């Protein structure tokens, strides 16, 4: 009987464990309300809760209510030692428009590729209820007196038109906040972004919905949309420490305060990006949007053959200066033209990019004569007039005064964009190859007692202690986990740097290999895992290891270039510059790190 009892208990435990595991794997998506019956002057909280993360959340229309707050998003992860519990909630605060019985309709979401819906909930709204609000309730304080707002300068921009997003935290003067902590950073998928954050957080006086508030500006970012259609700005979320008054007082009669933690999330903003018009788009348009000035100039117009001059193609003004390519320079083939040096002098503020970019070509004429550099055209989309504009430079004639004479007439010179010249071989190009030899016979010495004899005899005996020493060092090397990680990371960094060099000219493959090289190098030098490779932690760790701040900034700039390369046009010159910067920066970190 006892054995049978133990078997039954064991089966019951297994069944319960299996059922619990099934419940954990089952997707749950449900709607919950704070109350199903409320007065006309009350507010209703609606939570849409899921136990697995999903995409494309679609809330109901709430046509019978006024949305006074939300959507606020909260995520929690917990671990009970055996299983992981995940909860994600979208919260809305609603105010009824009139009395009656209304329905909170279905919400929808996609989880693991399958669509899930909540069940409708019936809500009864009665006449206004006379009841005092609890001003000391943390939820009431958060709902009524604290607001996290995302202010967007333009929600309907053109492709590559700059917009700004500013996150502000508004707090009523009657409420105190001891501290805040960012738990979810904004995500700008589909945008080129430049942070304009000010490290000094300063409280200011202002108004929110007509009432006096204090506010702080938490984040300021300039965005350039890189895709058309509806793009969602994933919101900022904060964990707030709120000072809540209690009914107790100290010995001096002052009310004792307590603290409560609450999560607040900014409103989700959707940006509807318009495509640039097709009507009137020039064939040479490369994506420039803004207000620009274009110029082609040379350092000199008269020189001798084999002397050099510089030709500069420059665009200046306000717009997406870092996000388009400059037109190429074409020249006669008798002018030897080197790859251009790309230069940028661009500053970014809340209005967008301003400054100038240029390509500097070095030109070396080979023959005497007059050689024209054809005019160059540059086109851009003007946001003020919402039309395309094209600027064409004047033709520049290079007068070569002294040098060999070209066989063809000046006006029939072939035009080339690469400036490559045929190689002229000298008749003495190859030296005479000697065919006679001065070999001498080897002396016929006796092998016995020779150096080779004793080396062959004693060499294996001497090799035994060397082998034992090598084996001990090899075991010590295998036991050095940190050192092995560093050596492996250095090897991978060299491998990916080599792959990046081979992929020059292929944007995506180049920047993937370059980013892998930088990450593997850091993993070995700083002894951190890939999951810890955030910009803030990298900067802190390098600073702690006494790496110069300028080198840290250069390293972060290279990582940022690897991220931006997915959304921006990149030239071969820029890729070569990024490769050289990466190799130089790694070398500097190796020299400075302690």
Task: Provide a concise account of the structure shown.
The protein is an alpha+beta fold. The chain contains eight helices and 32 strands. It comes from Olleya marilimosa.
Alpha plus pi helix count: 8
The biggest sheet amounts to: 5 strands, antiparallel
As for the number of domains, it is 4
CATH secondary-structure class of the largest domain: Mainly Beta
Q: What class do helices, strands and sheet pairing give?
A: alpha+beta
How big is the Rg? Answer: 36 Å
Shape: extended
Report how far the terminal alpha carbons are from each other. Answer: 71 Å
Uncertain regions spanning at least 5 consecutive residues: 13-23, 409-432
Structure description:
It comes from Olleya marilimosa. Keywords: Membrane, Signal, Transmembrane, Transmembrane helix. This is Protein BatD. By secondary structure, this protein is α+β, with helices and mostly antiparallel strands. It folds into 4 domains: about 25-125, Sandwich (Immunoglobulin-like); about 140-275, Immunoglobulin-like; about 290-415, Immunoglobulin-like (Sandwich), CATH 2.60.40; about 480-590, Four Helix Bundle (Hemerythrin (Met), subunit A). The protein has helices at about 1-25, 140-145, 450-480, 480-500, 505-525, 535-545, 550-565, 570-590, and strands at about 30-35, 35-40, 45-50, 55-60, 65-80, 85-95, 100-105, 110, 115, 120-125, 145-150, 165-170, 175-185, 190-195, 205-210, 210-225, 230-235, 235-250, 255-265, 270-275, 290-300, 300-305, 310-320, 330, 335, 340-350, 350-365, 370-375, 375-380, 385-390, 395-400, 415. Mean pLDDT is about 80; it is low at about 15-25 and about 410-430.
């Amino acid at each position: 009987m006892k054995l049978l009892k133990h078997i039954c208990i064991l089966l019951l435990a297994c069944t319960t464990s299996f059922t619990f595991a099934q419940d954990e794997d089952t997707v749950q998506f449900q709607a919950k309300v704070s109350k199903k019956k409320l007065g006309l002057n009350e507010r209703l909280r609606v939570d849409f809760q899921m136990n697995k993360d999903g995409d494309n959340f679609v809330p109901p229309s709430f046509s019978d209510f006024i949305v006074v707050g939300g959507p606020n998003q909260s995520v929690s992860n917990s671990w009970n030692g055996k299983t992981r519990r995940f909860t994600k909630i979208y919260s809305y605060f609603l105010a009824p428009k009139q009395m009656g019985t209304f329905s909170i309709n279905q919400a929808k979401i996609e989880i693991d590729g399958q669509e899930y819906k909540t069940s409708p909930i019936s809500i009864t709204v009665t006449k206004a209820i006379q009841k005092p609000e609890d001003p000391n309730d943390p939820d009431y304080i958060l709902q009524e007196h604290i607001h996290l707002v995302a202010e967007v300068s333009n929600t309907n921009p053109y492709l590559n038109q700059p917009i700004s997003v500013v996150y502000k935290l508004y707090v009523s003067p009657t409420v105190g906040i001891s501290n805040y902590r960012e738990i979810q950073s904004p995500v700008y998928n589909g945008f080129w972004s430049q942070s304009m954050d000010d490290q000094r957080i300063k409280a200011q006086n202002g108004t929110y919905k007509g009432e006096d508030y204090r506010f702080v500006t938490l984040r300021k970012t300039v965005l350039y949309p890189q895709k058309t259609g509806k793009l969602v700005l994933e919101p900022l979320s904060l964990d707030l420490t709120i000072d809540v008054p209690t009914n107790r007082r100290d010995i001096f009669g002052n009310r004792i305060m307590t603290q409560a933690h609450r999560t607040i999330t900014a409103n989700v903003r959707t940006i509807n990006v318009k495509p640039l018009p097709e009507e009137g788009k020039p064939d040479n348009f490369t994506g420039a949007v803004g207000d620009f000035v274009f110029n082609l100039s040379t350092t000199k117009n008269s020189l001798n053959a084999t002397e050099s001059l510089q030709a500069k193609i420059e665009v200046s003004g306000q717009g997406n200066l870092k996000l388009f390519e400059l037109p190429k320079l074409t020249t006669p083939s008798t002018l030897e033209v080197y790859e251009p040096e790309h230069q940028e002098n661009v500053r970014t503020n809340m209005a967008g990019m301003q400054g100038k970019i240029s390509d500097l070509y070095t030109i070396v004429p080979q023959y005497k004569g007059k050689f024209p550099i054809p005019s160059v055209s540059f086109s851009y989309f003007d946001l003020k007039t919402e039309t395309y504009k094209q600027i064409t430079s004047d033709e520049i004639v290079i007068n070569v005064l002294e040098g060999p004479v070209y066989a063809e007439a000046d006006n029939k010179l072939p035009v080339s964009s690469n400036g490559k010249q045929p190689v002229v071989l000298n008749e003495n190009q190859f030296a005479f190859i000697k065919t006679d030899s001065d070999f001498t016979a080897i002396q016929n010495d006796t092998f016995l007692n020779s150096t080779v004899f004793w080396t062959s005899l004693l060499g294996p005996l001497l090799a035994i202690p060397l082998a034992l020493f090598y084996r001990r060092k090899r075991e010590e090397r295998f036991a050095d986990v940190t050192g092995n990680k560093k050596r492996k990371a250095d090897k991978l960094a060299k491998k990916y740097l080599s792959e990046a060099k081979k992929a020059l000219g292929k944007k995506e493959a180049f920047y993937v290999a370059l980013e892998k090289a930088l990450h593997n190098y850091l993993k070995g030098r700083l002894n951190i895992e890939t999951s810890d490779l955030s910009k803030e932690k990298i900067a802190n760790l390098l600073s702690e290891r006494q790496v110069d701040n300028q080198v840290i900034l250069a390293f972060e700039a290279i990582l940022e270039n690897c991220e931006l390369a997915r959304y921006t046009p990149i030239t071969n010159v820029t890729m070569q510059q990024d490769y050289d910067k990466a190799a130089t920066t790694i070398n500097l970190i190796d020299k400075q790190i302690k």
